[in-house]
Automatic annotation (TrEMBL), chain A:
Pfam families: BPD_transp_2. It comes from Dictyoglomus thermophilum (strain ATCC 35947 / DSM 3960 / H-6-12). InterPro entries: ABC_transp_permease, LivM-like. It is found in: Cell membrane. It is a multi-pass membrane protein. The keyword Ubl conjugation does not apply. This is Branched-chain amino acid ABC transporter, permease protein.
UniProtKB/TrEMBL annotation, chain B:
It is a multi-pass membrane protein. This is Branched-chain amino acid ABC transporter, permease protein. GO terms for molecular function: L-isoleucine transmembrane transporter activity; L-leucine transmembrane transporter activity; L-phenylalanine transmembrane transporter activity; L-valine transmembrane transporter activity. It comes from Dictyoglomus thermophilum (strain ATCC 35947 / DSM 3960 / H-6-12). Its main location: membrane. PANTHER family: BRANCHED-CHAIN AMINO ACID TRANSPORT SYSTEM PERMEASE PROTEIN LIVH, HIGH-AFFINITY BRANCHED-CHAIN AMINO ACID TRANSPORT SYSTEM PERMEASE PROTEIN LIVH. GO terms for biological process: D-alanine transmembrane transport; L-alanine transport; L-isoleucine import across plasma membrane. Belongs to the binding-protein-dependent transport system permease family. LivHM subfamily.
UniProtKB/TrEMBL annotation, chain C:
This is High affinity branched-chain amino acid ABC transporter, ATP-binding protein. InterPro entries: AAA+_ATPase, ABC_AA/LPS_Transport, ABC_transporter-like_ATP-bd, BCA_ABC_TP_C, P-loop_NTPase. One of its GO terms (cellular component) is plasma membrane. It holds the Pfam family ABC_tran. It comes from Dictyoglomus thermophilum (strain ATCC 35947 / DSM 3960 / H-6-12). Keywords: ATP-binding, Nucleotide-binding, Transport.
From TrEMBL, chain D:
This is Branched chain amino acid ABC transporter. GO terms for biological process: amino acid transport. The keyword Oxidoreductase does not apply. The keyword tRNA processing does not apply. Keywords: Amino-acid transport, Signal, Transport. Gene3D superfamilies: 3.40.50.2300. It comes from the Bacteria. Belongs to the leucine-binding protein family.
């Protein structure tokens, strides 16, 4: 209980911080938003790939499904519902509706996760990867053929409801949810699947259940991330959800360290900021970008964080170490 | 109607033989190194460009240009392996995959920088001839590509299964350390594998360039992906499987376009793939090894 | 009281009959040995009992219930635990985590308890940890509880496998060659350990082993398999002198048998 | 060594984050956002080339309002979030007064709201979705909308080519292609024609035999392929191989010298609509084609011409505004009733969309020749 | 023939070998015994340079094995029957044996070696075409030994050849080992089944936690009380 109060205080502080970030230069602010959204994507994929050990590269599909559904709800039904809530100020009702639609989008993705997961999670390794990739592409083809959401023309006219406070809120929820799952008996069950599925089953772990659980929780947050993305850019386009998007998220989690949530956040940071940081190089930009990826992987094959987490504890110990070192220099 | 179906099947086979051509190299490298060489599609693109310069700028005859492209690409393949993959030989498999993705981006972006992204017409050293069998149309290039891919499959099967270096390749794939203890120089074997895989990719690139008459730095992405899917479908690591997977993908895509709807072609093709995998979880020719516990 | 009844069990791989028409019973608190040449089908019998393979035909009745067709995790939850011929620990997890995973279903709080850090979550966690420490202590592994499982020496890894199996709270324990790779002295220590486990945890044990000093010392009854068929059954004395067993399995000189 | 590389990377990141754009005195900054790499890089590069050339020409003449124009080009890789970041960066860090760009409509629709809310002018030469300029009054364009070309070609096929039946082969992944196809189908049926086949492909496909075999069996009088030349060339080649002899047609996406290179004989006798005609006697067009070819080693395609015009249009607005203040530029642009560019003379409607004629061109004897003009 | 000098091997923090010295003379059978985790496997693997050697040298005649790559060590005439057999599971029995002769160029030598191995293990001849992964444990062990014999190696390293094998097979394998030794090959044998090991060894080294604690002729070692108690059941 005490921990929960503590967490809520932390959340509030973070949200206040996020609120202040709106005063930043809009360019930085926007990069922050994308970092947040990417972090949600990365952490949720990490649950599937890093902790459960299931090689999935269909994350873009879940992101698209949730994103498009919540965007379609806002565009087609948002006003009606806001009218129903006219007894409260619009600035509040708008956000309540947004919150609900995001969750509906997330749940829809989670549902897809279950539907896809039950049959395909029997597949192993690269075979699973291909099945999830195929699934992501199927979703995209369906969207291309759906005129209600604009098909190939994209889906414009989504109101901009996402802001740094929302992104921070969801990133935090995502982190806490995953963190607590992982550090419970359920989490150990999930991790044991990654370590040795056969042994895990022999220990009484219902591996199918946990795989599908991880898959659908991952899908849920991917859907939320999709919703945040659409309601920030004010436009969704199927070209944003090719398998290259899934690959990018995969890059983030491997770079950050499979099996490390804080690593995912760092990985998301690197891959969000790096392309921006390299803008000055114009033509060489992407060459440097890809070289950096390769070099990072060569010098840290298990990712920046491996499977460790950043915590207050080890930050303090690093600070101490630094103190000692600078002390020596003096 | 019957004619139409036959024509479509021929279309499917010719598309499938292109997927197969690329999938062969993919699957061989995978079979030996358990590496999804994400950059394979881009090596294929490099091969096509080297062929483009060999045939166009240096004006070589087709056969010579093809060989030059294969040789140069093989060297590039070896370099890529030495620089980017070798240091990670004992790292987790996924790190290697990420590096391969990095290499893929790098090759694409370097080529964009060097030659630009505008598609180029591939020098046409072999004029297209159209043959009519009844009302069914086949071109000489389709026949060339089909026969080359069949030939390469047989050739690879032979190399991998019947030669000493092939045995060493398989031994390395199953147990690197043990292979070394028997005197196999695994660096050489892996270099050879990459050289062979890259040369195959280059052959594919040149042939496809000749066939579609268009090359560009991103030309490897989609065929690379499809070829990978084909390789998995047939049972990844299994050489005839890549061929079979390629044909099934090609024919399925064409038949879906022809008789269902071209709009949802890719979706249906992937649904077929997933269904096949659910029935045969290790691909069509994959051995379903229930893990012995 | 019969704990396990195996009736007319058969299993085939391709054309190969790995187990054919095998029947045997297992009584409460008994230690039954299974021996037989390499490839006789011993491990396959374990895999059939624990649901990893589906039998071609036959029944496996555990505490009166036919368990054929159940998934491995369901069988574990009914109370059958096993070790593997090649140790399958969660190598990159700590020793205590290995044991706690096995307790997953024994003490279990709901997912929401974990999400909201309810009291039940803390209770479950500490209970699991306590019990796990108890088991580790019994096996003398307590001091290594925070090491990665893969860093234990081979012998301790085998012990940890047994500890982990016991943590699932089984009434029937299947041990597949627990003494493999041990020297004589170590094997004899293992004999004591197994006997203590039976008494302390009240489990029934089915044991596969090639070390005769282990089998002959601890099993009151032994069954011998060859080509998937039972070729002999009885007490150690009877089995040891059975000419078919000598020809197929023991050879003429049986060394290292201690009484 | 490892450590050194690590430090190098970190230093690189930090350095480039804080490296500030050099502020040359007396320049007017204009941003360009194009997908120079990625799946539609060909479009992006043409567009960037066109825009660059317009700026260079202006600078060669001493700039605008006495200041040099500085064009800062950003690549968005055809990723929407990159487009958004590029727009923010140009506006916030480089302080550009206007942006030329957004090659596809989805990019323009992403950049549009940012430009609008930051009160920076956006001129696009190629985004043809009607919604683009509806985002706000800071957004302008110089190209026709999707519908127009589709209708033009429908009329042309029915009336000039006397086609009673037509087949359509659309790039299902391209909004441009879909827009044209939809308009074509609607118009063609409305004036009495019949669509016998409605097939599609994905941009970047290379094999179209399945769709073409199907089309062949239905024997249409005309085949409409509203795609880009990079896809159209293999389509034409394969169609001819399969023995389809009827004329094909398309929109401005066909316009590129590469089409003739890649589909030399196959393109013979086909028609497409375009903004300008290469053999127009118009001096403006002639010089543009000549200079562009000299500069980039290849003849311009429609995209290059459109972005060239977009930039010219913007520069003229700045001139007219007499100031580099975005609001004034916007007002000046809005008040411009006509503009004459290489893609034709245009007038503007209330929604800042151009009204201009389309030319129908024919490929004949391996050359593109003028066929007729269609007025809106 | 082989001499190991002051060898130290550390796996990260774990000091698996802490300065061991072993000598093997031509034509000998030398047994290496010790408890689990004593470092026996590590010693054999070090000869092939497959462990992180921190300090020390290993000489094969005059050549320092710690300085040359693994595949070259094989070419000097050393073969290994490793812990866990490590046959190539997806290759046939015959191909596995051919891999054993990877460095042998001469066709007739290969043929003679085949004949020799098949005469030792007729079972392998019967199963020539079977995939090694589907062999039973004992058959795989025969294959691993056979593979090591295909290379004309002068020195054979054997790591627990009796592990997991049925008693009858253990006896068979040891009689084969004796035969091999009579063919003038040198054996360095790691074994838990000390009774068996002692029955063919000329000399014995005893290891404990990374050190050699006792060495001598078989008779000397076997008469040591502690050894008797710990390993021989006496
Ligand atoms: N998953 C499988 N696929 C194919 N064959 C199998 C499989 N599992 C076991 N076998 C075969 O079944 C037979 C019996 O194997 P099993 O593992 O039960 O033998 P075992 O009696 O345990 O032998 P050992 O003492 O060597 O462990 C062997 O021939 C083996 O090759
Ligand atoms: N790859 C490794 N990484 C870390 N530690 C290792 C590794 N291999 C062996 N060890 C450790 O080194 C020590 C010696 O191991 P080794 O395998 O050589 O023992 P052994 O004498 O062969 O034992 P066994 O009889 O169990 O085979 C053990 O403590 C073991 O845990
Ligand atoms: C370059 C083209 C694909 C752009 C297209 N006219 C659009 O509006 O999206
Ligand atoms: Mg067994
Ligand atoms: Mg050992």
């Amino acid at each position: 209980m005490r921990k929960n109060v503590f967490i809520i205080i932390v959340l509030i502080l973070l949200l206040i911080l996020a609120k202040f970030s709106q005063g930043l230069n809009p360019y930085f602010y926007q990069v922050l938003i994308f970092w947040g959204i990417n972090s949600i994507l990365a952490m949720s994929l990490n649950l599937i790939n890093g902790f459960t050990g299931q090689f999935s590269i269909g994350h873009a599909g879940f992101m698209a499904a949730g994103g498009y559904l919540s965007a379609a709800l806002t565009v087609y039904h948002g006003d009606k519902i806001i009218k129903l809530l006219s007894f409260m100020p619009e600035s509040i009702s708008k956000n309540i509706v947004f919150f609900i639609f995001l969750i509906i989008g997330g749940l829809f993705s989670a549902l897809l996760g279950v539907i896809i997961g039950i049959p395909t999670l029997r597949l192993k390794g690269d075979y699973l990867a291909i099945a999830t990739l195929g699934f992501g592409e199927i979703i995209r083809v369906i969207i291309y053929n759906m005129d209600v959401v604009g098909g190939a023309r994209g889906f414009p006219g989504i109101p901009q409801l996402t802001n740094s406070v929302w992104v921070m809120f969801w990133a935090f929820i995502c982190f806490i949810t995953l963190y607590r799952i992982i550090n419970s008996s359920h989490g150990r069950a999930i991790i044991s699947i990654r370590e040795d599925e056969t042994a895990s089953e022999a220990m009484g772990v219902n591996t199918t259940y946990y795989k599908v659980l991880a898959f659908s929780i991952g899908a849920f947050f991917a859907g939320i991330a999709g919703g945040l993305f659409g309601h920030y850019l004010m436009l969704l386009h199927p070209a944003s959800f090719t398998f290259m998007r899934s690959v990018e998220v995969l890059l983030m989690i491997v770079l950050g360290g499979l099996g490390s949530l804080t690593g995912s956040i760092i990985g998301a940071f690197v891959l969000t900021v790096l392309p921006e940081a390299l803008r000055g190089f114009s033509g060489l930009r992407l060459v440097i970008y890809s070289l950096t990826l390769i070099i990072l992987m060569l010098i840290r094959p298990t990712g920046l964080m491996g499977n460790r987490e950043i915590s207050f504890g080890n930050i303090m110990s690093i600070v101490k170490k630094l103190n000692r070192r600078t002390g020596n220099i003096k | 109607m019957l004619e139409n179906i036959l024509q479509q099947i021929i279309n499917g086979i010719s598309l499938g033989s292109i997927y197969a051509l690329i999938a062969l190299g993919y699957t061989m490298v995978y079979g030996i190194l358990r590496l999804i060489n994400f950059a394979h599609g881009d090596i294929y693109m490099l091969g096509a460009f080297i062929g483009f310069f060999a045939l166009g700028s240096w004006d070589m005859p087709f056969a010579i240009g093809l060989i030059v492209a294969m040789l140069l690409t093989a060297i590039i393949g070896i370099l890529v392996e030495k620089l980017a993959y070798k240091p990670l030989r004992n790292a987790p498999r996924i790190s290697l995959l990420i590096t391969a993705i990095g290499v893929s981006f790098l090759l694409e972006n370097i080529m964009v920088l060097l030659v630009g992204a505008t598609p180029r017409a591939f020098p046409q050293k072999i004029p297209t001839e159209v043959y009519l069998i009844g009302n069914i149309i086949v071109t000489n290039k389709q026949i060339i590509i089909l026969s080359v891919s069949i030939f390469l499959m047989l050739f690879l099967q032979f190399v991998v299964n019947k030669t000493k270096i092939g045995r060493a390749m398989r031994a390395v794939s199953q147990d690197k350390e043990m292979a070394q203890m028997l005197g196999v120089n695994i660096d050489n074997v892996i270099s050879f594998t990459f050289a062979l895989g890259s040369a195959l990719a280059a052959a594919g690139g040149v042939l496809v360039g000749m066939y579609f008459n268009k090359i560009e730095p991103y030309m490897g992405i989609m065929p690379g992906l499809k070829a990978f899917v084909a390789a998995v479908l047939g049972g990844i690591g299994i050489i005839p499987g890549a061929m079979l997977g390629g044909f099934i993908m090609g024919i399925a895509e064409v038949l879906v376009s022809a008789f269902i709807s071209s709009t949802i072609r890719d979706a249906i093709a992937f649904i077929i793939l997933i269904v096949i995998l659910l029935v045969k979880p290790t691909g069509i020719l994959g051995k379903y090894m229930r893990e012995k516990v | 009281m019969k704990v396990l009844e195996v009736k007319n069990l058969s299993c085939a791989f391709g054309g190969l009959m790995a187990v054919s028409d095998l029947s045997f019973d297992l009584y409460k608190n008994e230690i039954l040995g299974i021996i037989g040449p390499n490839g006789a089908g011993k491990t396959t019998v374990f895999n059939l009992i624990t649901g990893f393979y589906l039998p071609l035909k036959g029944e496996i009745i555990f505490n009166g219930k036919n368990i054929v067709g159940l998934k491995p995790y369901q069988i574990t939850r009914l109370g059958i635990a096993r070790t593997f011929q090649n140790p399958r620990l969660f190598k990159k997890l700590s020793v205590i985590e290995n044991v706690m995973i096995a307790m997953h279903k024994v003490y279990n709080a709901h997912l929401s308890d974990a999400l909201f850090l309810n009291k039940r979550y803390y209770k479950e966690e500490s209970l699991q940890r306590e019990k796990a420490e108890e088991i580790l202590d019994f096996f003398g592994l307590y001091r290594r509880k925070d090491d990665f499982a893969e860093n234990l020496p081979y012998g301790e890894q085998r012990k940890l496998e047994i500890a982990r199996a016991l943590a699932t709270n089984p009434s029937l324990l299947l041990l597949d060659e627990p003494a493999a790779g041990m020297n004589l002295n170590e094997s004899l220590e293992l004999v004591d350990l197994i006997a203590t486990i039976r008494d302390k945890f009240g489990v029934t044990i089915l044991l596969i082993e090639h070390h005769m000093e282990v089998v002959m010392n601890i099993c009151k009854r032994i069954i011998v398999l060859d080509f998937g068929m039972k070729i002999a059954e009885g007490d150690p004395e009877k089995v040891r002198n059975d000419p078919r067993v000598i020809e197929a399995y023991l050879g003429k000189e049986v060394k290292g048998v201690i009484h | 060594m490892k450590r050194f590389v690590k430090i190098l990377i970190i230093a690189l990141v930090i350095f480039s984050l804080f490296v500030l754009p050099l502020q040359a005195a007396g320049t007017i900054k204009i941003g360009g956002i194009f997908p120079i790499t990625g799946p539609v890089a060909t479009f992006g590069i043409s567009c960037a080339n066109g825009a660059k050339m317009a700026v260079e020409e202006a600078n060669a003449k001493g700039g605008v309002l006495g200041s040099k124009i500085e064009l800062i080009i950003e690549d968005d890789q055809y990723k929407l979030e990159e487009a958004a970041n590029a727009a923010r960066k140009l506006i916030e860090r480089d302080k550009v007064v206007a942006i030329v760009g957004g090659v596809t409509s989805s990019e323009a629709l992403t950049i549009g709201p940012i430009a609008q809310s930051s009160k920076v002018v956006l001129v696009t030469g190629t985004a043809t979705n009607p919604k683009v300029t509806q985002v706000g009054d800071f957004i302008f364009r110089v190209c026709f909308l999707d519908d127009f070309q589709g209708e033009v070609m429908a009329n042309f096929a029915y009336k000039n080519l006397k086609a009673k039946t037509a087949a359509v082969l659309t790039a299902v992944t391209s909004d441009y292609s879909k827009g044209l196809a939809d308009a074509f189908k609607k118009k063609f049926t409305a004036i009495g024609g019949k669509i016998v086949a409605d097939e599609s492909y994905s941009e970047g496909d290379t094999d179209f035999r399945a769709q073409l075999t199907k089309i062949k069996a239905l024997k249409p009088d005309f085949v409409f392929v509203p795609g880009y030349y990079s896809d159209v060339a293999p389509i034409l080649n394969q169609a001819r191989e399969l023995g389809i002899t009827v004329p094909f047609g398309g929109g401005d996406g066909w316009d590129s010298p590469e089409l003739l290179k890649q589909a030399a004989k196959a393109a013979e006798g086909c028609f497409y609509s375009n903004h300008f005609t290469p053999d127009a006697k118009d001096l403006l067009v002639q010089t543009f084609v000549k200079n562009y070819t000299k500069k980039y080693g290849m003849a311009p395609d429609a995209l290059a011409a459109l972005k060239y015009d977009a930039m010219k249009f913007l520069l003229e607005g700045i001139k007219k505004a007499g100031s580099a203040d975005p609001v004034k530029i916007k007002e000046a642009l809005a008040s411009m009733k006509t503009f004459r560019g290489v893609t034709g003379s245009m007038t503007f409607d209330a929604n800042r969309n151009p009204i201009k004629s389309a030319f129908i061109l024919q490929i004949k004897d391996g050359k593109v020749v003028y066929y007729t003009t269609v007025k809106p | 023939m082989l001499s190991i000098r002051d060898l130290h091997v550390y796996y990260g923090g774990i000091k698996a070998l802490q300065g061991i010295d072993i000598d093997v003379k031509e034509g000998e059978v030398v047994a290496l015994i010790g408890a689990n985790g004593a470092g026996k496997t590590t010693t054999l693997r070090s000869i092939f340079r497959l462990t992180p050697i921190v300090k020390g040298d290993i000489f094969f005649y005059e050549i320092n094995l710690t300085k040359i790559p693994t595949h070259r060590i094989a070419s000097l005439g050393i073969a290994h029957v490793p812990e866990g057999r490590r046959v190539f599971p997806d290759m046939t029995v015959k191909e596995n044996l051919e891999m054993g002769a990877f460095l042998v160029k001469d066709k007739t030598t290969i043929k003679n070696n085949f004949d020799f191995v098949y005469s030792l293990f007729p079972r392998l001849k019967e199963r020539e075409k079977q995939l090694a992964g589907t062999l039973s444990g004992g058959e795989q062990q025969m294959l691993a030994i056979g593979r090591a014999l295909m290379s004309n190696a002068r020195l054979l390293l054997l790591d627990e050849p009796s592990m997991g094998l049925a008693p009858l097979l253990v006896q068979e394998i040891f009689s084969v080992l004796r035969k091999i030794n009579e063919e003038k090959r040198t054996l360095l044998l790691v074994e838990q089944n000390a009774n068996m090991a002692f029955s063919i060894a000329h000399r014995v080294y005893v290891m404990e936690t990374g050190r050699i604690v006792l060495s001598g002729t078989t008779q000397e070692v076997a008469s040591n009380d502690a050894i008797k108690k710990a390993y021989l059941g006496g």
